[in-house]
UniProtKB/TrEMBL annotation:
SUPFAM superfamilies: DinB/YfiT-like putative metalloenzymes (SSF109854). Residues 14-130 form the Mycothiol-dependent maleylpyruvate isomerase metal-binding domain. GO terms for cellular component: plasma membrane. Pfam families: MDMPI_C, MDMPI_N. The keyword Isomerase applies. Residues 142-243 form the MDMPI C-terminal domain. This is Maleylpyruvate isomerase family mycothiol-dependent enzyme. One of its GO terms (molecular function) is isomerase activity. NCBIfam families: maleylpyruvate isomerase family mycothiol-dependent enzyme. Keywords: Isomerase.
Length: 251
């Protein structure tokens, strides 16, 4: 999967959704945020990642200190600002080298990690904007499925730290199955508890709870952008597992 090309594409799609939209529009999926705050969050986030990679940082960078971290006041300028931020990240990764170790909020990772992270960040935030503006939203199944995997990879690290309860109890398991054609194993996930966190694989199997549906719906349900009941997702087994999962996983 060409994460760099997809990142550019989804940056463009996000820009198309927000272009000329009322920035005071509230976001139902991001409480207390407006569309304008979302735009700034996305564009500044790309520049933040670009500066981390460009400076080969091995420590946290305060996002408020990022160069050109605020969009221009005009819609066309904002779109150009968004596109420029994405290109800055790609240029930084190319110049540093994709395997160069840099700081991330999960510890040191290769610089190219940031491209995949920002791809899925902008993809989900495009859903936030589309939902707020009452527009249709869909991802290519391969991109949505990779988004689920990327989310689980991060969660497997984050859920095992801190004092929060594990997303799954005891020997409880959860199975996700995409119905989109052509995904094969990349469209299945079995998730188990591992210590105080989780472990997952692409293996097929039954779970204490199973969710079956389109990759876009499954991704948005996992990151709490839609309710399962508002989608075509089928749920089998103990739905209490799902409620606990949502309560115990971060936004």
């Amino acid at each position: 999967m060409d994460h760099a090309a997809l990142f550019v594409e989804h940056n463009r799609l996000f820009s198309e959704v927000i272009h000329n939209a009322d920035e005071s529009t509230p976001l139902p999926t991001c409480p207390d945020w407006t569309l304008g705050q979302l735009i700034r969050h996305v564009g500044r986030g790309d520049r933040w990642a670009a500066q981390i990679v460009g400076d080969r940082l091995e420590h946290f960078l305060d996002p408020r200190s990022v160069h050109d971290g605020k969009p221009p006041p005009d819609p066309d300028g904002t779109v150009a600002w968004l596109h420029d931020g994405a290109q800055r990240l790609l240029d930084a990764v190319n110049q540093a080298g994709g395997d160069t170790p840099v700081w991330t909020f999960l510890g040191t990772r290769p610089a190219k990690w940031w491209v995949r992270r920002r791809l899925h960040e902008v993809a989900v935030h495009r859903a936030d904007a589309a939902i707020a503006l009452k527009r249709d939203f869909a991802l290519q199944p391969e991109t949505a499925a990779d988004g689920i995997s990327e989310w689980l990879e991060r969660l497997a690290i984050q859920a095992g730290s801190g004092d929060a309860a594990a997303p799954l109890d005891g020997d409880t398991t959860m199975h996700l199955h995409c119905t989109d054609p052509g995904l094969d194993k990349a469209g299945e996930w079995t998730i188990r508890r591992c210590g105080t966190g989780i472990a997952w694989s692409h293996e097929h199997g039954k779970g204490t709870l199973a969710l079956r549906g389109g990759a876009t719906d499954l991704l948005l349900a996992m990151v709490r952008r839609v309710r399962v009941t508002d989608t075509a997702i089928q749920m089998f087994g103990d739905d209490g597992v799902w409620e606990k999962w949502l309560e115990r996983t971060p936004l």
